[in-house]
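Below: protein 1.
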Amino acid sequence: MKPANPQILTINGGSSSIKFALFESGDSLQRILHGGIERIGLPDATLQVKGLNPADNVSLAVSAPDRSVAVGFLMDWLEAHSSRDDLTAVGHRVVHGGPTYSQPQRITPAMLEELHRISPFDPGHLPEEIQLIEAFHHRFPDLPQVACFDTAFHHDLPRVAQMLPIPRRYEAQGIRRYGFHGLSYAFLMEELARLDGAAAAQGRVILAHLGNGASLTAVHHGKSIDTSMSFTPTAGVPMSTRSGDLDPGLVGYLAHTEQMSVQQFHEMVNFQSGLLGISETSADMRDLLDRELQDVRAAEAIALFCYQVKKWIGAFAAALGGVDTLIFAGGIGENAPPVRARICDGLGFLGIELDEYRNAANQGVISMETSRVPIRVIRTDETVMIAKAVCRVLELE
């Protein structure tokens, strides 16, 4: 029997944060609370919560020296401020599903065993996500948990887009292009269909999720046909601290000249590169835009980011045989008009023509009236996709 007021908790764990949202699933899905613990591991960690009513809003300092303490504090707070009887399920964003998982599924011991096995696929995310799943199971052993995989949207990429040009024997180990940001892309495609109709969503669409992590995806007939991230989320365009694509020969060169270990190389390309590495000052696009007139390093970091995103748009237009819609999303894509303008500059030959006024005003459609390709800005929402998936898997709708 379904509970009278089923509530779904969504969890999205990052390297230094745990974000959550609480939804009520009745006649429709409604977000009751959302927030998270930020700056885990630092002395100024905080819990931020926003609710439907101002009285539900919370901002307080917490002691969160590590993730285990942080998740314990979050579970304590949730138990104290919501009804355990109404909490029906927990949905987790799991970044990597490996070759096995292509749909949201209820978490079982067998799934956890498989996620442990494939943890080397994504050592930057999977161990932390497994830790969160196990912590909730320990506190609430009877509470169903559902895993929603960020790779699922790209699971059925055409074979030519899946394959990596390394010895074929590695394919049997699950080494292929997976792609990420799938929950965001699924939401954007639903929104495109809602805003512009089913025909637009069946067309040739380029999605640009540009945030701390950044990727692009080419979609045709509603399916992902190629994406910039690859076996790991480090590949593709430069990001806040990730390098994006690099010459693999750098591994051997730096090992020879600087005795750089595999772990040191991993740390460099994931946490010391991208916008931070080029600017030497900040991984935050807002900071760089503020400084670019005074600091050539900031200007070059922005220029490299925009240039690489533009190149991927051109590549995906070739893969699609043209483009019918371009969508920007993510923290940079949604909030940085100068970045969008520089990316679109020079793409008129593809039918992409930006309207300066609409772009500066952050309107939903930022293309010119005469542009053959509509350019949209859509605020993405991965948490609602997790909540919807939990409802489907557990038949709460």
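Below: protein 2.
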Amino acid sequence: MSKPTKRDQAIAASIAGWFIENDRDFPWRTTPRNPYYALVSEAMLLQTQAARIAERFPVFIDRFPTVDSLAHADEQDVLAQWSGLGYYRRAKNLHRAAQRVVDEHDGVVPSDVESLLQLPGIGRYTAGSIASIAFDKPEPIVDGNVVRVLLRIEGADLPPTETATKKMLWERAETLVKSADSPAAFNEGMMELGATICTPRSPSCQECPVRTRCKAKKQGRQGEIPMPKPKPKQRIVHAASVVIRDKQGRMLIEKRDDSGMWAGLWQAPTVESDDKAPSKTMIKVIAGGKQIKRLNTFEHQTSHRTFHFTVYAAAPPSRRKAHQRWATDAQIRSLALARPQMRILLGDDGSG
């Protein structure tokens, strides 16, 4: 780490001061910060917008108000509370992390990065975020927002995904946070600045607290920095789901395997194919041999997959399979469902 300069100190002070005056009111931003809330919110915020988490966080905390209550919860209950947020591995890791905190740290979320890194699902960014925000420790953080802010401040026209760039960004983040009077306010300010002011497109530079020290602004290149990331190659998945109701109005549902996409979640009887749309024969098999009627089609996008869903209806089979069960609409709402299955089974995409 390089020795902080006066410019570094000024940048850190400006961002921390700006955050204290302009932070958005989120339910996990308590005074003082709650380490358990930090653990939960950081898990939720990975790859999900803060505005959406602001709606779901209080519901999750109401169900699991302490690390102990989360640790002793059933995994299916945890996944059900996570329904619609996507990336369900985060929920499983959070559950396991809570169990480790209870078993190995007497139910107290650790304050040091080394211990935090030993928890399931906790990487360098999340460990630094919890240590700095909840415990005001001078630990660096680098996420997508911070990458953009740092590259623009330094006028660095570098590919964000390259190892050398990442190394430079972590070193700059460390230098800046160690020069801050309040590491917590500085780190939250960096993330907030990237989310609200130093946005990917049309940044609001005139409202930025470090506009006079931003090299990209001086060069008029804030629209060019950072360099665009290469788009990940999308895998196409064709899926067919069958909606089946019995005479009591219950729907037939099944649990997915414990590995792979949407592991352990519930769904309508579904068949998937990478090559082409499932054949009628394949669909009739999951429909219990009954005739099928096409209802609708839709697409669902994830970070690396494009799902083409076709939804069918069928009469109830004479016998359900071992991994299937009948459930009412109310029961289905209490289960862990991926967003496409919310739409298929309940007519709800989880955005409300």
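The domain at 6-219 is CATH 1.10.340.30 (Endonuclease III; domain 1).
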